[in-house]
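Students often ask what a holo structure prediction actually looks like on paper. The answer is less mysterious than it sounds. You provide the chain, you provide the ligand, and the output is a string of discrete structure tokens encoding the 3D arrangement of the protein together with iron/sulfur cluster.
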Amino acid sequence: KGTMIIDGRKVEFENEQNVLEVVRKAGIDLPTFCYHSELSMYGACRMCIVEDNKGGIFASCSTLPKDGMEIFTNTPRIKKYRKNILELLLANHDRDCTTCVKTGNCKLQELSSRLCMDDVRFPNSMKEHDIDYSSLAIVRNPNKCILCGDCVRMCEEVQGVGALTFAYRGSKMKITPAFNRTISEVNCVDCGQCRAICPTGAITIKNQNDYFWELVNDKTKRVVAQIAPAVRVALGENFGLAPGTVTIGKIITALKYMGVESVFDTSFGADLTVMAESEEFLERLEKNENLPLFTSCCPAWVKYADNNFPDLEYNISSCKSPQQMFGSVLKKYYKELDKEDGKETVVISVIPCTAKKAEASKEEFITDGVRDVDLVITTQELAMLIKDAGLMFENLYDDSFDMPFGLSSGAGVIFGSSGGVAEAVLTRLMKQKPSVSDKEIIFNNVRGMKRVKEANFVLDGKEVKIAVVHGLKNASELVKQIQNVEKTYDIVEVMACPGGCIAGGGQPTPMDEEKRKKRASGLYSLNRTAQIKSSEENPLIRDLFQGLLKDDHEILHVQKNH
Ligand code: HC0
Ligand code: SF4
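The corresponding structure tokens follow.
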């Protein structure tokens, strides 16, 4: 606690971790590439330098605030140094901005503009590296890397994966998967969090928009789409709307304009998952086997568990994720119609997540040569498609989802936020056993951004314990505690991305805690206004179980290993 003088103004500080945060509190946006409050301090980019009253220059992100400290953020010396640093970065960078997908949202470009960088005096010293297209989720272009290390720390500190590392020294330094392998050859789980934090175009989403256009222009195909919960509260950010603004009606219209025949809601798939997963849980509880049940809807988590905790194989739910479940239901539904009109139905998912691209192409989700889901495009790819098609998003009218799957419950919508799956399953289980009380209190426990959330409830006289965890490093710590019997639970919800799918690797960037909260609150407001609260109350789910799925629950489950 104390007072600093920043550019002649007194600014009080209390819990700020460093001078940079105090400067920001004073309303000055100091540039930085490598400082993120949720990651460890790296202090490498030096963009956040300030000058003190004795002429000393230092990085503000790695300096503690002191009472009485006097600093200047914009002296001629500071401005010159900062510009020099930026100029050196640019001299070693692929500057093909016109053809870079990050253009318009690139930190390097933004700072070049802010610092009035109208020329680079040095010849370009960039040594050309191969672009790594090996992953189904992300593309790594080292030629656009500025070595800020954000991706390395994100992958290690938040996701506990460590797929990326610094290699070599000095001018040869680069960021690469271990042993110079391609990213698909290491333990990357496709979560895309490295892409979400990368300030430049060095890590981007694997773009499949060409395939989208090919499908919608193919007259032999019937293109149907499903939209994941978290897309509706984030896409609008690409069109100047506040995070959390719900734009689902316009998204449906946009997809129809672009040639999609019918548009459905992955939340309907989520309702299906709730039904299948609760049934599975009750069975396991009765037999007292394979508990805790771990959720299976997050593919980055499933891959992480496969890599690191093979013993959990039978604990992870055998249910397909909502995306895959709904995909297989849609394929079954259109089968007859396809025969009649000689078309082939293809299912496109619009999803906040890069790992869903990999999930959809897994062998276990291909039945008789037919994929459940043919193409996964992320929120950011959809924004590009809308712009490419010249649609004025803000002016589109609001449409609604199509029948016969056009209704979903409020429980299905909150799947997109950490805690949502647990809450939806709880809602289902509690309804079935109405003796359970204190619903509200329980739900408050599983919502929000806390690292690990816990809730208990009583089912048939037995206490059921639920844990919710997000961020794979947190998940890994929790699994170890469970394995060491330091903690016991009956259900564990795991989402790889901090905050859940609302902060998925395919969402608009940059992301911060504030944005995550706003997107989550957009979903919870949809939950509050939903007329159908619980998955089993959804009449279309009942119809489905009595009709199309009457004798076929198999398609809701992963066929491998279970
Ligand atoms: Fe999610 Fe999902 S909630 S993983 O975040 O479970 O991606 O939004 O679509 O499948 O429903 C992502 C989001 C989904 C699935 C659903 C789940
Ligand atoms: Fe690491 Fe996820 Fe990026 Fe893979 S996609 S390198 S796991 S942060």
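The longest strand covers residues 462-470.
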